[in-house]
Amino acid sequence: MTEIAPAATAGTPRNALVTGGNRGIGAAVCALLHRLGYRVMLAARDGVAAQQAAAAIAPDVVPVTLDVTDAGSVCRAREVCGPVDVLVNNAGVLLDDGAPPSGVDLSLVRRTLAVNALGSWQVCQVFVPDMVSRGWGRVVMVSSGTGAFSNGLFAGAPAYSVSKAMLNAVTVLLAAELAGTGVLVNAVNPGMVRTRMMPQASRSTTDAAGDVVAAVELPDDGPHGVFLRHGRPSGW
User: InterPro entries annotated for this entry (predicted)?
Assistant: First the structure.
């Protein structure tokens, strides 16, 4: 787990929005950000799940109903949250585990891309302009080594692998656009983490959250447009 120092924020805490925050890595990220002094907005597609997960962390964690695949839902979430300083795009699905690339159901591919890549892209388009206008922000994409060409795309879950490769591409493109604006955009590879997607994995969600929050806590001259693994840039 990457070491995290408490956020040095004077006055009003920074606002942090985490998609897919109701369980797994997202819930652990919300808990850690809250502990570090951020005003946390925990977003989930299911509003009741968001409320329950937020209450389990602390009374002041704000639950937000947000379906990343629904443009109207994303805009309504912006009305609830207002401008945010930190956006963690964590919402994701794994629907095609074990399917071969030559035979995977393309409807599963479309659904996976809609959440894992296009969903994050859509949320960025709604929330990032506020960061740019205020001259400061952090965008963190929770990606995967399965989508890294340097690591080797994973044929055992082709839709998931392609969706994360696309998410990495969105990270690079958005980072190039926002260079010099004060908004840092990076992707994080948390490794194989023990979640509902991968219950047999050995790495804890707490350790993975440490890596994600390290990208949130980067200094203003920190890495931008890179793929981080254990806090260090790695190959796309």
Answer: KR_dom, NAD(P)-bd_dom_sf, SDR_fam
Domains contained in the chain, number = 1
**Cβ proximity of 42 and 63 under 8 Å:** yes
Any domain includes 8: no
Question: Cβ contacts of residue 88 below 8 Å, gap of 6+?
Answer: 16, 17, 18, 19, 26, 29, 140, 142, 212, 216
Q: Residues 6-14: what's their mean pLDDT?
A: 63
What pLDDT does 12 receive?
87
Q: What does the alpha-carbon distance between residue 56 and residue 174 come to, in Å, rounded to a whole number?
A: 34
pTM beyond 0.90: the answer is yes
Nearest Cα neighbor of 86 from 124, 31, 45, 44 is: 124
With helix as H, strand as E and coil as C, how does 66-80 read? CCCCCHHHHHHHHHH
Does residue 225 lie in a domain region?
A: yes
**Residue 3 within a domain:** no
Summarize pLDDT for 21-35 with one digit per residue, the tens.
999 999 999 999 999
CATH number at residue 74: 3.40.50.720
Indicate which residue of 121, 160, 227, 236 is catalytic. Answer: 160
The string of DSSP codes covering 40-104 is EEEEESSHHHHHHHHHHH-TTPEEEE--TT-HHHHHHHHHHH-S-SEEEE-------TT--TTT-
Q: Is 160 a catalytic residue?
A: yes
- 86 is in which domain, residue-wise? 15-231
